Amino acid sequence: xxxxxxxxxxxxxxxxxxxxxxxxxxxxxxxxxxxxxxxxxxxxxxxxxxxxxxxxxxxxxxxxxxxxxxxxxxxxxxxxxxxxxxxxxxxxxxxxxxxxxxxxxxxxxxxxxxxxxxxxxxxxxxxxxxxxxxxxxxxxxxxxxxxxxxxxxxxxxxxxxxxxxxxxxxxxxxxxxxxxxxxxxxxxxxxxxxxxxxxxxxxxxxxxxxxxxxxxxxxxxxxxxxxxxxxxxxxxxxxxxxxxxxxxxxxxxxxxxxxxxxxxxxxxxxxxxxxxxxxxxxxxxxxxxxxxxxxxxxxxxxxxxxxxxxxxxxxxxxxxxxxxxxxxxxxxxxxxxxxxxxxxxxxxxxxxxxxxxxxxxxxxxxxxxxxxxxxxxxxxxxxxxxxxxxxxxxxxxxxxxxxxxxxxxxxxxxxxxxxxxxxxxxxxxxxxxxxxxxxxxxxxxxxxxxxxxxxxxxxxxxxxxxxxxxxxxxxxxxxxxxxxxxxxxxxxxxxxxxxxxxxxxxxxxxxxxxxxxxxxxxxxxxxxxxxxxxxxxxxxxxxxxxxxxxxxxxxxxxxxxxxxxxxxxxxxxxxxxxxxxxxxxxxxxxxxxxxxxxxxxxxxxxxxxxxxxxxxxxxxxxxxxxxxxxxxxxxxxxxxxxxxxxxxxxxxxxxxxxxxxxxxxxxxxxxxxxxxxxxxxxxxxxxxxxxxxxxxxxxxxxxxxxxxxxxxxxxxxxxxxxxxxxxxxxxxxxxxxxxxxxxxxxxxxxxxxxxxxxxxxxxxxxxxxxxxxxxxxxxxxxxxxxxxx
Length: 789
Known about the structure:
Blueprint: E1 7-9, E2 15-17, H1 25-32, H2 40-53, E3 58-60, E4 63-70, E5 75-84, E6 98-102, E7 117-121, H3 126-143, H4 148-173, E8 175-178, E9 181-184, H5 196-215, H6 231-244, H7 254-262, H8 278-289, E10 295-296, H9 297-305, H10 313-325, E11 329-333, E12 338-339, H11 341-347, E13 358-363, H12 370-378, H13 384-389, H14 395-427, H15 433-441, H16 448-453, H17 467-510, H18 520-531, H19 534-537, H20 540-568, H21 576-583, H22 585-593, H23 602-617, H24 647-675, H25 685-697, H26 706-715, E14 720-724, H27 726-733, H28 742-757, E15 765-769, E16 780-784
Parallel strand pairs: 5-6, 6-7, 14-15
Antiparallel strand pairs: 1-2, 3-4, 4-5, 7-8, 8-9, 10-13, 11-12, 11-13, 14-16
């Protein structure tokens, strides 16, 4: 028996067996196309679609599960792929979406386009239909076990050729309908595709995105792609990371934190919290209403899979597990085992799949522990303490951690209060104390008296606050940290430079023309602008530059001060000029002449004072390092005592003043010598010897002696002449006896002298020896000189 490959036919149409006949398998396949099984063409198209779209389990003929990436949420939806032939039963619409691929041989499509249903249709040319028949024929021959190895090769090539043309035909002529829209496939794509998988991967997310967003507006928005293939792995990893790190925001992996954030399980500070999740709160409300009862978890999985949430079961299961981990509910598995917070790590160590054994949940704590955990977090209690709160038996340990933090907050509150008072007393004129005081008022939101009362786990009920209250406390604690950090930095680092800048300002204001300082005013203005704003003082970004600006003021001032110091009192001054003045003949003469009593010495005294002052200002070996703590040189206190004008110019002025004073004094003395000429007769010979040359030469000698000054002073005094008669002198001495010893003689001489000058200025007395004038006068007489002034 054969498959007919050796049967031949004569010209008379007689068939005969021809063993030498060569078999044309293409002809065999062609002949088979006229005798194909029912639905063979649709079966081949469906095989191609299953291969390209990787359609797995066929629920009914032409019905498959499908997934679609949700582009705007980086999530996915589950739907159906339907190959519509117009036959069999119509598939129920019980999934998120449907993709209906209409058979080119379907005589009546039973599906209508909708916002969640996409219909793709197209036609095959007669040539493509014949090509498809050959594919189906080859498949039929294989099923008939006809030359399987040979026909199999033919089938593969025929199928490949048809598939290429089939895809190309649909991409060129296919129609897509969704909602009220009907478009050619070519208008939806921007490039050519080689298969239907690439096509659907491109157009499905675009066409269904709006529908998904409208149907499930409360679905999480992930930052990394969550797909049907990776959801279990991603959520299992996030769960294990959360449990192992106790919810610490600083140690959670990026993907874990992303998932928690998408599910609203992180608060504004990035800390793990179930109170921020609407789904978690809804579950807790149901658990509280059913206190003491076991509630089926499937009820929550079903509820949150529907609009407006659209949660995948894994997402809801994840939230149920983290509520258990947080100590808010307990789960019950098949067999009645209860899983509390302390068992979560062990039960779910293999992943979220372990949830398949969970059937019920029940309320775990007699009060809501999440607000307490949130409070602990925002006031800065170590995040590991939250793990203790989740287990009732470990809450006593958590209390100790809380008490330590409470005491630190109380200490910080006292610290910032005292520092504000200090600042108000010292720098209220330059620092925005009023603005800082307003920030201090925020600290009243910290319920420090409530915290003080928490000493046992039972007391935790007294510090349960609303989300709004916790947010206010968090803001207040943050403000406390800002204030504490500001005061600590200000008083430890900034204040010395502020004080320095204020002293610099005083120096520059008092001596505006003495210092040349580039841009220092701008740096000072910028610095004081920061100090005058509480907002800037408490902003690290704006406060941090303050120290740099103040130090720039200091450096610029020190450079300017050094230059000015050298110019005014340092080595740039020609101090030899001052020495030359002191050593000059005129100055030396004036130093002697200043003792002449009738001269006006004020001008010269000023010169002497200036010389002494300028000499004291000379400050050699000055170093910039001396200005680290002081704004002026500690030796000379420059610019204190510096008058307007540079020292060089002042020295030059002194030279001229000295010359003028000497000329004035000389003229005065010469003039007075003429006026007192008559008094010269009362002077001693030595004094006359000094004064008469001055009168004769009409100029003072050089050098001028102290004796000349004394002679001039004697000349210019009001002199008093006392005349002595020698006869009377003898009578007075020997009045008691003509003979006496030496002691008696000496005593009589002293008595006579005392009597002679009694009540007189001895410096003005002149003794004149005279003979008795015959008037009968005995003794001595005093005679004022009429020509002496």
